[in-house]
Design goal:
By secondary structure, the protein is mostly helical. It is 85% helix and 0% strand.
């Protein structure tokens, strides 16, 4: 046991070739993704004279593939060789980006949505392949530490990503921004060549179709009270976040009366809150039931959106964003713990493959309509509706507050 603990060091972690490669690849991918997200957002806002429908369609192109391809991508990632899958996905993303750049030179600016759509679809195949590589090639005692650093990269880019994306677009324009995206994806693909050779995939003795797997997963979720209630909570949270996700830029320009570029500071405040909250939540999570932890996170999110809806002061909106980010790890840890403690190991992949599309599907529904709702209702009304939807999500969790069923598996361990 002591020998195992001695091996769990940062030095051992960074000597692992797979972790080195995946972290470096993720770094370049995040540069490409954030330059994509912000340069395209600012470009479309400028090109359409701040048309809310056009702005909302960017988010639809980014999140709709997660709903449509998350389960399929995970299934094929298990069947295909993970190294080859990741390299091809990054390479094809880069090719699609350069196709968009070529179209921009000829004046077809609306093809810009294609860049977001294709790379988002391909990421649904690449991400689960990366997780599979962690499982295959990283020592078990290093996986948790490796995954924590992997997640830290995402949190850090929530702070610096908007700044990088805004800076590139403001100083170099959309053509250079698109080129940077393509180069970032190509660099990621090139780095992944360092990964160990893929194992030969063994033939699966049990032939099952995707449809059969999904039916079994739906039946499993339906028969579990905790997972069914969690599905309702997911749906409400997805509807809530989808309403405001495409409209954050209008919170800055209309509600606060500031330039659209100031959105980067609201995102940075949220990201800093997430990093700080992650460390604080780990200690609290050991003593707090997951359903309570999730309810706390959603309650603070509801309060944050309530304040942002009415606030006309930049510092108050910034504070609301920071506090929401501070408690967001409660949501992530609560959700993951509830799924793990209420799901048999054989069904974890399918349960995730069902719950995530429920969340994303509801998000895409309200994302798609948010632009039109913005033209009909006030920004305040939309943000306060988001607050009510979060409260509805908390109500789905109330029946789980009294029961100890959620904790039984962990207490037995």
């Amino acid at each position: 046991m002591e020998q195992a603990n001695a091996n769990v060091t940062m030095g051992a972690l960074f000597r692992n070739r797979v972790i080195q490669t995946l972290l470096l690849s993720t770094f370049f991918l995040q540069i490409g993704i954030w330059v994509r997200n912000y340069s395209i957002l600012l470009y479309v806002v400028e090109k359409t004279n701040e048309d809310p429908v056009a702005v909302s369609l960017i988010s639809v192109a980014e999140f709709a593939p997660i709903f449509l391809f998350s389960f399929i991508g995970g299934t094929f990632a298990d069947r295909w060789k993970p190294k080859r899958t990741m390299i091809w996905c990054d390479f094809l993303s880069a090719i699609s980006i350069f196709v968009v750049l070529l179209a921009l030179f000829f004046g077809g600016w609306k093809v810009i949505f294609f860049a977001t759509l294709v790379s988002s679809i391909l990421s649904q195949f690449s991400q689960p392949a990366g997780m599979k590589l962690f499982k295959l090639h990283v020592e078990e005692e290093l996986i948790q530490m490796g995954m924590s650093i992997y997640q830290t990269i995402f949190a850090l880019f929530m702070i610096i990503g908007p700044v990088i994306g805004t800076f590139v677009y403001q100083h170099f324009g959309i053509n250079v921004a698109i080129a940077i995206m393509g180069v970032a994806f190509l660099l990621s693909a090139g780095i992944l060549i360092r990964l160990p050779t893929d194992y030969e995939v063994e033939a699966n003795s049990e032939e099952t179709t995707v449809l059969q797997e999904m039916k079994a997963g739906f039946k499993y979720v339906w028969q579990s009270r905790a997972l069914t209630l969690l599905s309702g909570c997911f749906a409400a949270a997805g509807l809530a976040l989808g309403l405001t996700q495409p409209l954050a830029v209008f919170l800055v320009t209309e509600q606060l009366g500031l330039p659209k570029e100031q959105l980067q500071w609201l995102m940075a405040a949220f990201g800093i809150g997430m990093i700080l909250g992650g460390g604080l939540t780990v200690g609290v999570a050991k003593k707090t039931p997951p359903q309570i932890l999730l309810a706390i996170g959603m309650s603070v999110s509801a309060l944050g959106f309530f304040i942002m809806g009415f606030s006309e002061l930049f510092w108050l909106t910034l504070a609301a964003q920071f506090i929401s980010g501070l408690f967001m790890p409660c949501v992530h840890i609560g959700i993951n713990t509830m799924i793990l403690k209420n799901t048999d190991s054989a069904f974890i992949g399918r349960v995730n493959g069902i719950l995530n599309p429920i969340f994303m599907g509801c998000m895409v529904i309200t994302m798609t309509t948010s632009g039109w709702l913005k033209k009909t209702f006030s920004l305040v009304a939309i943000y306060e509706t988001t607050t009510l939807l979060f409260v509805l999500g908390i109500l789905f969790l109330v029946p789980l507050f009294k029961g100890s069923r959620v904790l039984e598996k962990s207490e037995e361990a």
